[in-house]
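A.,

Following up on our hallway conversation. Structure tokens first:
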């Protein structure tokens, strides 16, 4: 089970992934469709916390951003293929980082599976914890 994932191809780095998947155009299209300015400066609240209750968003911001190691973006994905295990992708309908149609296309093109959809943002684990938990328990 993967939630709103970056799905790499063998040998692809995280840095290459953005351009190779057409992420920027997909996000621009989704922003325009939703009436958002695609050229506006991105911030944590707009991208990640837009559908959280104010107290939860505030609590999330109190922790600050964690430092991301550059390794996942610099090193190629080493596996020759996606692992041969049952895989489910969950895409969130209100995800502004990986828009729904983009995530569905990526899941289909790179894994050959249809992504399941749940309400929620990129941080669906916070924005829709109850429905996500019900989904996972099923």
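Then the amino acids I'd put at each of the 138 positions:
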């Amino acid at each position: 089970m993967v939630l709103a994932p970056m799905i790499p191809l063998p040998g692809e780095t995280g840095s290459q992934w953005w351009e190779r998947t057409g992420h920027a155009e997909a996000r621009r299209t989704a922003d325009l469709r939703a009436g958002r300015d695609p050229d506006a400066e991105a911030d944590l609240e707009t991208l990640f916390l837009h559908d959280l209750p104010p107290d939860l968003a505030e609590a999330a911001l109190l922790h600050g951003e964690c430092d991301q190691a550059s390794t996942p973006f610099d090193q190629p994905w080493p596996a020759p293929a996606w692992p041969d295990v049952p895989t489910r992708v969950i895409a969130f309908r209100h995800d502004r980082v990986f828009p729904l149609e983009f995530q569905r296309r990526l899941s289909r093109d790179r894994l050959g599976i249809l992504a399941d959809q749940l309400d929620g943002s990129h941080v669906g684990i916070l924005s829709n914890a109850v429905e996500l938990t019900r989904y996972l328990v099923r």
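Helices lie at 14-20, 23-33, 44-47, 54-62, 71-74, 100-111, 124-127, 129-137. Curious whether your intuition agrees with the design.

B.
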